Backbone:
């Protein structure tokens, strides 16, 4: 039968007692013998004490929290469950409720970045953690001394970035210090600073250094760790990004938008020169300025400038996100007028880039805003006409209604749209930038022609005249073009009357239109007029002159506008 250590110790102590008794009987001084026995007993008791496992106490919460964080940041999850349980046991033993609450919050905050890790089991939630602690957590009869299992090098080696290595080393160092292993802890904090110095992002580096500094400060200025604050300051000074002289000049600009514009151009230049690090730093500076801008319309403009700068710095995804943010800000502008002005600035800025996806994104919203404006414009027109119709003075009523109509008809945007439609029609007609397509050319010419575009009306007529089924419509469009004073349209219409194509031969009408075109210097008309005049009788020439005089009398701006707005009909083909 095996004898356990406690039985052995009991037998040993019994034997010692017998020896002491015998010595005393033989006359040996009792006091010295007793002192020696006590010394031996103390050693035995100490041995017995060391053989017992160390139990968790309320003072272990800090060191276990930091140790747990070190294992999590270094991605060593095998010990996490055990350390977490020990930590919770330590927290449950704390009787000071205020201290317990603070430590619960610190614990939950430490675990928050790892809330998706199954080993955490939801303990990143301080409420859930507090509830778990309120239940009786049984004492582990055989608790693990976690610090005996630490292999620092292998622990930090698994961390996959300098950022994580820095945080893991800091927490491990703090844990060691709380466990009265000051030198080991100090060495680990120094390792944390070394890893931090290798972090590239300046802001992230400063954040890590401040966290280390705050951790050190918890031990007071007299602690050996406080000497590391000088090292922290040195790393900060050495890590400061170089300030380019151009940035110094830009800093003197007071207007935020002007400053952003200057920085955007500077960032693009740096990117072209291959200095991506300084270019990105400049873009970050722009972002900081934008965050301070309160006015929404200014935000929209600033974000657009940043988006273009990012695009020029070969950051298309970031550019698209920023432009979307600009458009989201645009949606917050309540006034349609202000929204239109802000959108105009976006378009003006986007015109500087060749990126089609950026242009398309802006155009989608431009169409939306245009529809909003048109709807409000139509409502204003309707209300204005309704109000004008209530005027008692008939002449005033008529002139006001006419003025309102003219105001809406003379819209510059309508002219721009007509020009754009004509351009597309011409491109399809001539096969420029697009494959030649007469049907699409006809479609776009017609859109422009309906908006009163004279050249579109002429081109549309010259296409339609080739088909006997559409010749009447062609003559109608030529009439509109000619009546707006277009010399080429007048000459073409005159030729058709002379040839009898699409209309009956009418030399008087032919003479009228060709003469009007020749008066404007049209060379074809000048040549045709000499030949045509020889074929007309004197009476026909007089009749033509009367028609020319009549047309010129009616050829006022108002008359031309009215002519351009009439719906084309075959019956319009009149001399």
Residues:
């Amino acid at each position: 039968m095996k004898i356990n250590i406690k039985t052995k110790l009991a037998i040993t102590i019994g034997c010692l007692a017998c020896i002491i008794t015998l010595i005393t009987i033989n006359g040996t001084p009792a006091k010295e013998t007793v002192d020696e026995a006590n010394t031996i007993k103390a050693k035995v008791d100490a041995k017995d004490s060391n053989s017992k496992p160390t139990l968790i106490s309320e003072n272990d919460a800090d060191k276990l929290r930091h140790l747990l964080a070190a294992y999590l940041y270094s991605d060593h999850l095998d010990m996490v469950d055990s350390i977490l349980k020990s930590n919770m046991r330590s927290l449950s033993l704390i009787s000071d409720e205020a201290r317990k609450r603070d430590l619960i919050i610190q614990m939950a905050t430490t675990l928050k970045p790892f809330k998706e890790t199954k080993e955490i089991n939801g303990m990143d939630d301080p409420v859930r953690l507090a509830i778990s602690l309120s239940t009786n957590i049984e004492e582990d009869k055989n608790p693990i001394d976690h610090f005996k299992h630490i292999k620092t090098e292998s622990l930090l080696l698994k961390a996959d970035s300098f950022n994580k290595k820095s945080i893991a080393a800091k927490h491990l160092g703090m844990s060691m210090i709380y466990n009265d292993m000051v030198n080991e802890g100090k060495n680990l904090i120094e390792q944390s600073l070394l890893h931090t110095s290798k972090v590239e992002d300046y802001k992230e580096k400063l954040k890590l250094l401040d966290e280390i500094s705050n951790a050190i400060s918890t031990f007071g200025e007299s602690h050996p760790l406080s000497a590391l604050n000088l090292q922290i300051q040195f790393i900060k000074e050495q890590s400061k990004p170089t300030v380019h002289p151009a940035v110094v000049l830009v800093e003197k600009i007071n207007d935020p938008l002007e400053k952003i514009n200057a920085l955007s151009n500077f960032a693009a230049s740096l990117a072209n020169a291959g200095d991506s690090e300084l270019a990105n730093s400049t873009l970050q500076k722009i972002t900081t300025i934008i965050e301070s801008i309160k006015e929404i319309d200014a935000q929209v403009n600033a974000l657009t400038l940043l988006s273009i700068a990012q695009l020029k710095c070969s950051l298309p995804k970031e550019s698209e996100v920023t432009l979307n943010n600009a458009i989201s800000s645009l949606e917050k502008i309540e006034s349609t007028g202000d929204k239109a002005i802000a959108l105009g600035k976006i378009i003006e800025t986007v015109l500087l880039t060749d990126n089609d996806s950026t242009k398309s994104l802006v155009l989608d919203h431009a169409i939306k805003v245009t529809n909003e404006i048109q709807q409000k414009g139509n409502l204003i027109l309707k209300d204005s006409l309704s109000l004008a119709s209530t005027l008692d003075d008939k002449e005033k009523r008529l002139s006001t209604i006419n003025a309102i109509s003219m105001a809406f008809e003379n819209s510059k945007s309508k002219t721009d749209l007509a020009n754009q439609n004509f351009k597309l029609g011409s491109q399809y007609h001539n096969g420029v930038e697009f494959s030649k397509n007469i049907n699409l050319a006809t479609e776009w010419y017609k859109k422009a022609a309906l908006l009163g575009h004279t050249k579109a009306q002429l081109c549309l007529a010259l296409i339609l005249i080739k088909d006997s089924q559409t010749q009447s419509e062609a003559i109608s469009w030529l009439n509109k073009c000619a009546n707006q004073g277009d010399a080429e349209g007048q000459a073409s219409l005159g030729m058709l009357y002379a040839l009898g194509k699409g209309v009956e031969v009418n030399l008087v009408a032919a003479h009228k239109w060709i003469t009007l075109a020749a008066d404007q210097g049209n060379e074809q008309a000048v040549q045709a007029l000499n030949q045509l005049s020889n074929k007309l009788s004197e009476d026909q020439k007089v009749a033509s002159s009367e028609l020319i005089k009549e047309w010129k009398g009616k050829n006022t701006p108002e008359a031309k506008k009215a002519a351009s707005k009439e719906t084309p009909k075959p019956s319009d083909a009149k001399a």
